[in-house]
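Deliverable D4.2, example record:
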Amino acid sequence: MEIQATPSYLDLYSSSRQPGRELVPVRLPEVLAVVPGELVRTLRPLDGQSEIQARRELTGDINLRNATPHQVSDLSLDIYAAGLIDYEEYSLLAFQPELHPDYNKTIGALTGQMAQPDKPRDHVAVWEDKLRFLIEHDPEDTVMRTRTLHVVEVLKYLTTAPTRIRA
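Output generated by the structure prediction step:
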């Protein structure tokens, strides 16, 4: 009797996938890809559009210095699709603990602070605090520190008025 290897998920489903159905970031205004080692690349405006208009089109009416966790979680997908952050950074930004239904039973019970997912806060400052914490308490994790620094810089970029387009 011959023993057959169990087929993998990839073996079962890769041949049946329809071409062109892969998850590919959608480019809003033409965007330069994020290159490792560079903090932020700017949005390139469409014809007749300023960089400020390109940012407004991306962020809508959300001010990242006064946004709710719901808004940041939703906006993070647009920032990822625009190519300003990579998938791992998107995962970090999209994860908002207060949106979890058991937050009050777990983290809230330990800290004494209940979830307030609709309370606006300065998300740039929140991410700067995360970066300071990583620098102080986990200096060896350079990958997480670099990702967190990049998220901080992208959030700052999206909240400040541009002076000129960088190459």
